[in-house]
Fold:
Amino acid sequence: MLANNETGTIQPVTQIAAAAHAHGAVVHVDAAQAAGKTGIDVTALGADLLTVVGHKMYAPKGIAALYVRAGTALEPVIYGGGQERGLRAGTENVALIAALGAAAELAARDLAAGAEARLAGLRDGLHTRLAAALPGRIQLNGPPERRLPTTLNISITGLRGHDLLAAAPASPPPPGPPATAAGTNPPRCSPRWAWTRTAPWPRSACPSAAGPPTLTSTPPPRSSPKPLSA
Structure:
């Protein structure tokens, strides 16, 4: 994992890859959380394989991409047709592929325009204001430096995460899959914040993926059916 999805911590993948290669191991890097939020250099990381997913960077769910370093041998997931260079037989979903490509172009444009520094400034500004409003009670979870610009994971001394959500004006979101799997109901965890392209917003006090939210649409309300005439 290049970046932790809870705290935003950027892992020392370069050193890990070097140690793995020294023992003849192949290194696969999960870059789902980092893609689109910080620059990724597969050569500098030493990755043999690297995965990015669409729903973490504004593309629809159900699409991902795998980088394969030249010379890395892989066994096909599904045998049959020659799609995806013979690694996975089956008709490709062209619409989702195009969506992932468009999302990647937008992300690259944002990063080139300084989005990483701008979002880090919003993150740090929020942290500073919270620390000033609650002196001595705000604790940062994770390292202060090597972390994603979109994630601020904090604990507030003397306050449980679900109590904070209950006091918020908006309806609290349901527990995320990790909290549910852990049997935590209501979730006992720390509040976390995520950033959109424009402003910070409280996302969840439950363990769930951090960073820009996936764009979703709400269907229009369904009209009541008209009664059948006799």
In short: The chain has six helices and seven strands.
